[in-house]
What does this fold into?
Amino acid sequence: MTKKILGCIADDFTGATDLANNLVRAGMRVVQAMGVPTAPLDTEADAIVVALKSRTIPKEEAIAQSLAALQWLQAQGAEQIYFKYCSTFDSTAAGNIGPVTDALMQALGTDFTIATPAFPDNKRTVFKGYLFVGDVLLSESGMQNHPLTPMTDPNLVRVLQAQTQSRVGLIDHSVVAQGEAAIRARIDQLKVEGVRMAVVDAVSNADLLRLGPALKGMPLVTAGSGVAIGLPDNFGVAPSNEAARLPTAHGLQAIVSGSCSVATNQQVMDFIKAGKPALAIDPLRIAAGVDVAAEALAWAEGHMANGPVLVYSTAEPSAVRAIQGKLGSDKAGAMVEDTIAAIARGLVQRGVRQLIVAGGETSGACVQALGITQMRIGAQIDPGVPWCHAVAPDAKDGLHIALKSGNFGSTDFFTKAFAQLQA
Ligand code: ADP
It folds into this structure.
């Protein structure tokens, strides 16, 4: 492939889709791969996002996976590499943002990169190197209590410096506000001082759009998904509806939901209130050995011809706690995920070609069960949730799929999403 593309490495699955969504909105045609593909990409794209699950795994593994992704992306013609992490800079004291960045820099033979999780559309802003989530500092945002990656220091220069031997500096807002020439001059100055990674302030999309041109030609960019809005112009790409164009939707419609988040509970209620067919599955019956998936599929067969059906384990927190108390939360989670994934696969085998999956972990299980290895990213339904299109072993004619992580989407999401696909 001779065409120059943007090659992206994302450290988690829904984060990859979030980045892909921003690139599509900025006009790029984007393909997302689940893990590092074993074969060359067989379709046209301006950007490819390789989705890893490397955020909290041991750093040696995160480095190995990221380098494998880099190598594959370079073979596809990647001109610039974008290492995408969470907009709350989720990482442990050991990394993996710093170590992966160091390894990518070394492999690319580059001595400078930037780091900024700023994503103003999602209220993540960086000022003087401090990360704000909404109106409060990162360390007061609830992220200080995260079970895997507690973020207790809002100063990203310090956080990143603790993860790397490379010297970390800052490109502050007074520089960013002046635009490309000033940013480039600051980068040159930092390089002279021996700085290899610079945290960049950005409090608005205008800041990110000013930053974009200054990143042209930089071999490696590390960021949340926000910086993506300023890069497509460097590749001669302008926003257009064309980038989001997917094949025409066909086939039956279904929703499977294993998310118990507040937003998903409301979305399930909204669908039921509208009088649409919905079936709740009971984790205790799965635990008792009942073939709940077969039951659900038999039920769905009777309803699918008339419009979308919903199969859900979604429940209020008290009900989830009761189930977890009886089965243990890991066991309950895994059992429900397996069952919903089997249902998703069975639905596709029965002709569903427009599928919504609610839940981050649930999405991972369903995509795996469906054998989907790559997806083309289409139009956004709600912030962070685009329709995607994939070919799967049980859907060789193609399948539209939307993966909705927990708290995303408006209350009428399940109805609105299908309406958007038909428009
Ligand atoms: P979200 O994106 O909302 O966090 P996930 O799919 O990531 O959703 O996580 C939800 C977890 O809860 C999954 O492991 C799922 O299997 C589990 N789960 C779903 N329904 C129930 C239930 N009724 N009782 C207990 N656990 C459940």
Q: What stands out?
A: The chain has a mean pLDDT of 95. The longest strand covers residues 395-404. The CA atoms of residues 254 and 309 lie 5 Å apart. The two ends are 34 Å apart (CA to CA).
